Each structure stands twice: as structure tokens, then as C-alpha cells.
Amino acid sequence: xxxxxxxxxxxxxxxxxxxxxxxxxxxxxxxxxxxxxxxxxxxxxxxxxxxxxxxxxxxxxxxxxxxxxxxxxxxxxxxxxxxxxxxxxxxxxxxxxxxxxxxxxxxxxxxxxxxxxxxxxxxxxxxxxxxxxxxxxxxxxxxxxxxxxxxxxxxxxxxxxxxxxxxxxxxxxxxxxxxxxxxxxxxxxxxxxxxxxxxxxxxxxxxxxxxxxxxxxxxxxxxxxxxxxxxxxxxxxxxxxxxxxxxxxxxxxxxxxxxxxxxxxxxxxxxxxxxxxxxxxxxxxxxxxxxxxxxxxxxxxxxxxxxxxxxxxxxxxxxxxxxxxxxxxxxxxxxxxxxxxxxxxxxxxxxxxxxxxxxxxxxxxxxxxxxxxxxxxxxxxxxxxxxxxxxxxxxxxxxxxxxxxxxxxxxxxxxxxxxxxxxxxxxxxxxxxxxxxxxxxxxxxxxxxxxxxxxxxxxxxxxxxxxxxxxxxxxxxxxxxxxxxxxxxxxxxxxxxxxxxxxxxxxxxxxxxxxxxxxxxxxxxxxxxxxxxxxxxxxxxxxxxxxxxxxxxxxxxxxxxxxxxxxxxxxxxxxxxxxxxxxxxxxxxxxxxxxxxxxxxxxxxxxxxxxxxxxxxxxxxxxxxxxxxxxxxxxxxxxxxxxxxxxxxxxxxxxxxxxxxxxxxxxxxxxxxxxxxxxxxxxxxxxxxxxxxxxxxxxxxxxxxxxxxxxxxxxxxxxxxxxxxxxxxxxxxxxxxxxxxxxxxxxxxxxxxxxxxxxxxxxxxxxxxxxxxxxxxxxxxxxxxxxxxxxxxxxxxxxxxxxxxxxxxxxxxx
Amino acid sequence: xxxxxxxxxxxxxxxxxxxxxxxxxxxxxxxxxxxxxxxxxxxxxxxxxxxxxxxxxxxxxxxxxxxxxxxxxxxxxxxxxxxxxxxxxxxxxxxxxxxxxxxxxxxxxxxxxxxxxxxxxxxxxxxxxxxxxxxxxxxxxxxxxxxxxxxxxxxxxxxxxxxxxxxxxxxxxxxxxxxxxxxxxxxxxxxxxxxxx
Lengths: 814, 197
Hints:
Number of strands of chain A: 8
Family (chain B): Belongs to the small GTPase superfamily. Ras family.
CATH topology of chain B: Rossmann fold
Distance between the termini of chain B: 51 Å
Distance between the termini of chain A: 125 Å
Largest sheet of chain B: 6 strands, mixed
Strand order of the largest sheet of chain B: 2-3-1-4-5-6
Helix content of chain B: 40-55%
Structural class of chain B: alpha/beta
Radius of gyration of chain B: 18 Å
Strand content of chain B: 15-25%
Helix content of chain A: 55-70%
GO biological process, one term (chain B): signal transduction
Subcellular location (chain B): Cell membrane
Membrane topology (chain B): Lipid-anchor
GO molecular function (chain B): G protein activity; GTP binding
Radius of gyration of chain A: 67 Å
Shape of chain A: elongated
Number of helices of chain B: 5
Largest sheet of chain A: 8 strands, mixed
Number of helices of chain A: 26
Oligomer: heterodimer
Structural class of chain A: alpha+beta
Order of helices and strands of chain B: EHEEHEHEHEH
CATH class of chain B: Alpha Beta
């Protein structure tokens, strides 16, 4: 190998001043026999260039010859094909393929190629070459070519030589060089001189250089000093900065803490403010001004009524104040509450005791004064029928009521503040009044009886033979009376003066009733006001309700009529007075009724006994009585008619008819029929009034249609009216799908159920009526649709079967 | 004044059913007011209440007099539902009215969903024997088939009028007492069961 290399160097490359760097023994692919050498060669001149030669023997015996050559910089790719393969491709002007004979040789060759091409500006690409070959060290070359030390030393140097050479790059250099060369025009002819000149110049320059270096030494040292100073300064600044930084770090923590504290302060502040607000609220709401406290503590009735009422309402405000949740657990609050409670107790004690005493006192007082005529307010009645004056008076309670009226406010307060005391007080009032009334009534009725006896006696004396005539007359009276509209004497508070003979009974009864009625009404009105019976959540316990109607059956006929009057008046005024929701009305009514019956316990029995007494006196006068009753009924009709509540009207007429039917008085047949008719009318009115609702819009729409038809619009042209177009019809019909209708009906049923009272048991009747009405409306609407919108294909979204189904379902669910 | 209403006083709800013109209202009015109304006026629905003494105890009776001619049977559902006992009336002078009782019976049973509901079959107008169309045997056999009593009445002569109402009230009262007892019995049974378990 080495021999081959030597031979090649000597025989071929030395001739052309070239140096062999590496060889590789290769053969053409598929032509193993024809071997040649690939030689990497560098030129001796500077800058050196590397050339790859292919050297081969043209024949077996002939000498080695350069066959082809490529500049290393012209080669663009060196391809090892495969790591383990022996093949080698060089891409230059075209692709050359060889196969190496020795892998080691091949590897070295490639390494050298790589190494020498490394410094080139345009390196060939090395493909598929193992990594170890692609180093910039040439150890392998050196180790394998131990024998050619000189060469390897040579080419070890060669890269360095290459690096010392600096091409002229800038224009200025070129100019300088050319001007230098111009000055030394002899250079080419006399190189030596040129060299000399150059070296002389060089030495001059060197000297100058040294001098300037020397001259700049103090400056340098100065500079050094400056630098040192600067460094010191920098260090100081740095240390200063570090200190500052630390300080800042500390401050930041402090600032953070301050921020937190600030926030906490804000929070505390806000809390404190809220607390203050709460406290202020609590205190202002729970505090009663000292004057009021003083009044509550020291007031005496009846002197300080008004002040006490004001203080009481103040107390009520404080007591009923709803504290925010949790605040009532504060001991101060509970203390204040206790204090308020004490005041409350004191208040209720004061008011209750005083009123209690007042009630009893008034009860006794009036009872006493009642015996002395003229003292109490009284109505007197004189009858001139028999020419004898018969006075019997029923003392009015107006004075008591006047006396008590100023306490209304206090009663109201008491009711809220101490319902127990209030209930107690109510009972006391009721009891006192009832005894009082009982006593009053007793005397009153006795007087009435006396006057009857006297009158009757006198009458019989003066007209001893007038009895049969009387009866005939009475009959005539009644007939005339039935034809005329009788004056509403009682209910209009007018006096009805009976005419003709035998009017004594009438007048006495008239007198009795005309006095009783306003008295009862006044008492009721007063009770409602004074005892606050109309309040919603009346704490008054339901006093035993007197079953007024229960006794109807056992009472005499005339009496039951009167009693009905009382009853119905109570009901009616109760319901007109109360403005609450309808479901509360009944409760209030019950309460009013209960209280009234507690206050007038003896009224019925007294009336009863009076009437039986009347009957005893003269059975003939029963006729008169009947006339009387019929008169009362008329008044009742009128009264009932003025009520607002349809269902009460229905119930009352129903009850009235029932009562009349029980009486079995032939004279009253007319009234009975009237009652029945009115009952039916009222029922109808009630049903239609409450029935409009489930299909309100539909009804409204078809009412309009009906009105148009009534006004002369042809049925077939209705659908051309804007408001009654088919679209409108569709829209209205859409609003009532079956589901909605069912809901509406259920709602209606519930409402009716709520309205009607158990006692009259009219729910089924009313509901049946409503079902009928509903179906009637339905068929009417269907009919109108068929007539006015014949081709529209619009039908209601529910059928008659649906409706019946709903009715059945409602029935099943109740 | 001391009496408490509603307390202990029983209330029995009776419904009058039957075809139109058989005398439901006449029976009711005779019972309520001891009167016989000659004029015929079709009823829609009417309610009556009366206090009576039934076997020594004062009770209240609610009578719902209903329409014989009703366009839609479903309208009756609601009051059938509310009734506790039924007087199913027909006229012995009109076979159609007797045939119609079958339908009423079925509807009542369906609505009340109770085979043993207090129920009386009432053949009215017994004073008009010469116009009789429904024989006693025929009516009795139907009543037997249903397991209910059959009574013939006359609203005009008041024959058996009180009887039908009182018999029905007794049946209702018995039914209520039985209901209470069976409730108690059930409770007893339950407690027994519990102890056994």
C-alpha cells in the first residue's frame, strides 16, 4: 500500500507539484478486474487546491496515468451507499460509481475527503457515511500511514497554511495595495528591492507602533485606574442597591400588612355602622317614649282615655315589631320585651278592669234608670185605636253605647295586645247586656201584654158585639192588603198605622216590633264596631252558637216569621257590613250571629210567649197576625233584594220559602209563591253571573255576533266583519282547549262550594243549574258557529262528550 | 242556646231519582210540608232539609229532589255522588217509568261504586189502582233481584210516604253505624295482627 502510494507520488504527482494525501484502490462496479486508484491530492502552491484524480493503468504493463480529475470543490455529493458496503459514489459533473477493494482504505479515503473539504466554502454532501468518518481529525490517516510521516506532517500543516492566507476583501485594501504597487513599479523586475523597501517600511511601522504603544502606556494605566475606580464605584452602587432592595422588601411586607389592616378597618367600620343601624332600629322600635310609659303606668280611666289610646297604640307598635332574626336573643331586647310586656299587662289590666266595671255599672245603672221613665232614651207609642193611652217603652241602649263608644279604640288595642282579656271582656259585655236586655224585654213584653189585656178589655167593652164584623172586616183588610203593596213600615222605620177596627193587636205588635227592630239593629251595629267582630282574625272564641233555626219548628207560626226576620236581618247586615273576602264573610256572619244571639237570649222566648198570649186572647187575631207576618215578609223580600251577595240572596230566599211552606198559612200562599219565584230568579242570576267566567272570551265574542245579527247583519255576512272574522273566531276558539275548560269548570265548582253555606244545602242544586247553563251556552255557541261560519270548519276544541266527562270527573273527585 | 249544632246530630242525605212525572216532588213536598200539589211543574233540582225524630233520636234529613227529564245523564253524577241513600221512584201507572229504574240503578251503582248503598224502590201513585200498568209481583221481583225493599206509596193519600223516608234513613243510619263498627273492627284486627306478629 505504502509502496503504491510512494510510487504514485513519485511517478505522477511530484511531476505536477502535487502532494498525494490519500488513495483508495477501486474498481468500476461490475468490472472487478479493471482496477484504478482514486487519489486525493493537494497542489503545492498557495492557496492549495484539492483535486481528486482517477489514476489507472491503461494496460497491464503500461505506466500509471491520470485518467480523470475533479476539483474537490466541484464534487457535490459523496455517497457511501451503505454503512457496510464497499461501494462509493461521487457526484460531480455526473455520477461515478466504484467499489473499493479494502474497507479500511475506503473509510480512510472518505474521512480524508471529509476533512479536506471541511474548509471549503462549498462542501460536498456526505451521504450514508458512518459518523466516525466525519471527524475533523485525521488520526486514522496518521496511524495508517505511519510510514509516510513527512506527508502526514505536511498535510497536518496544510489546513493551517490555508487559514493564514487572507484574501483581499475590501476595496480599500485593493486600492492601498495597488497604490503600493504603483510606487514600487520595479517590484516585478526587482523583487529584492521591493522586499527591502517593504521590510524597511515594515520596520519603520514597527518602530512607530512600538513607540505609540509605549506612549499610550500611561494612558493605559490611567485607563486601568479609571476602570478600577469604576469597578469600585459599581460595587458600592451594587451594595447600596442591595440595601435598598432589602429595605424595599421589608416595606412591601409592611405595606401588605397595612393593606390588610386597612381592609379590616373598613370591614369593622361597616359592621359597626350596620350594627348601629340595627341597634337604632331595634331601640327606636322597642322604645316607648317616657311620657307614654308614664301614661301607661299612671293613667286613670276614664280621664285619660285618649292619651291612653295613643300610648296603647305606641305600645302595640313596639310589641308587634318584628325583630330581625336572632336579635330577639339579645338580653337587652328580651329585657325591653319584658318591660313592654309588663306595660302591656298593665295596660290590659287597666283597660279591662275599667271596662269591666263600666259594663257592670252601666248594666246596673240602666236597669235602675229603666224603671224610671224618661231617664233612658225611649220611644213611646200611643195608640188611639181604642181611645185609651197605652204606653209601653223599650229602653234604648243608645246611652250605653254612647258611653262606651270612646273606648272603641282601646278595645281594638286590647284585642291585639291581650286577646284573652278581650275575650273575657267580650263575655262580660255579652253577659251584662244579655241580662239587661232580658230584664228590659221582660218588662217590655209584660207592658205590651198588659196594654193588650187592657185594650182588649176596653175594646170588648166598647164593642161588645163587633166580633163577627171584626172578623169579616179583618178578612177584607187582608184581601185589600194583598192587592196593594203594603208599606214597608218596619224596615223603613216608618210607622204603619193600621186602619179599621180591631187594629189593637196590630198596633201593639207593630209597636213591639217597631221598637225591637231598631234596637236590635243598633245593638248589632254597635257590637260589630265595638267588639270588632268584622276583623279578619278575630281572636274571639266562638261562643256557643245558638241554633236559632232549630227552634223554628217548635215555635208558633207567627213567631217563626218574626224570628226569621231577625235571622235574616242578622245575616244580611252581617254580610253587607263586612267588606272582607267572601270566604271570611261566613265566619264573620257566624260570629255576629253568635254574639247577637248571646245578647238577646230571651228575645225569642219573649216574642214567642207574646204571640201565644196573643193567640190566647183571641184566635181571631191570628188572622191579623198573619197579615202582619205577610207584611214582614214583604219587607224581607225588599231587604234581601238589596244585598250584594248573590249566593246569600239565593240562600235566604230558599230559606224563606221553606219557612213559609212550613207555616202552612193559606194567606201567605202568595208570598210563598213569590218567595219561590224570587228564589229561582236569584238562582238564575247567581248562575249566570258566575257562569260567564269559564268561557268569558268566547261568550264575549258570540255576544258580539248575536248583537250584530240582532242589528240586522245577515248571518252569512258576519264573517266579513273585522272583529268577527274567521281568524278572530279561530283565535278565540283556540283559547279554550279542552284542558282549559276542564280547569275552569273545576275552579268554578270549588268557588261555588266555598260560597254556599252548609245549612241551606244548595250546592247540588246550584251545580246542576250551572251544568245546565254551561251546556246551553255550549250548544248556543255551536249553533251560532254553524249558522254564521258554515264553511269555516271551525269547531270548539271540546265536545259535549268532553263536557259531560268533565262533569263526571268533578263528581268523582268530590 | 246551650245546644251545639252539628254535634251528635246526624245528617242523612237522600236523593230522589226516577223518570219525569212519577211524583218525586210530590212525595218530597208531602213529606216536608204535608201537602199535595196538584199542579205539575217539572223540577230541575231542589233541596230540602228537615228535622225529624228517628227512633227517639233527632236527626236531620237533606232531600235533594232531582229532575226526571235530564238531557244528559252525566249531569246527575255529581248529586248521585253526594247522596247517602236513594229513593228510586216510578209510577205504577206507567211502565216506561218502571223500566227506566234499571238505568238509574246502574248509574247510581257506577257512581257510588257500592252494591249495598241504601236504596228503596218506590212505586208511587198507589191510589190509582185502576190505571195500574206495573204489577206488584213484577216490581217486587225486580226489587228482590237488586236486594232492595219495594214499597208502594201515594203522595196524594200520604200512604207510606213517611215510611219510605224513614226506612231509608234507618238504612243509612245502620250503614253508617256498620261503617264505624267495621272501622273499629278493622282496627282491632290490626292490633291483633300486630300482637301475633
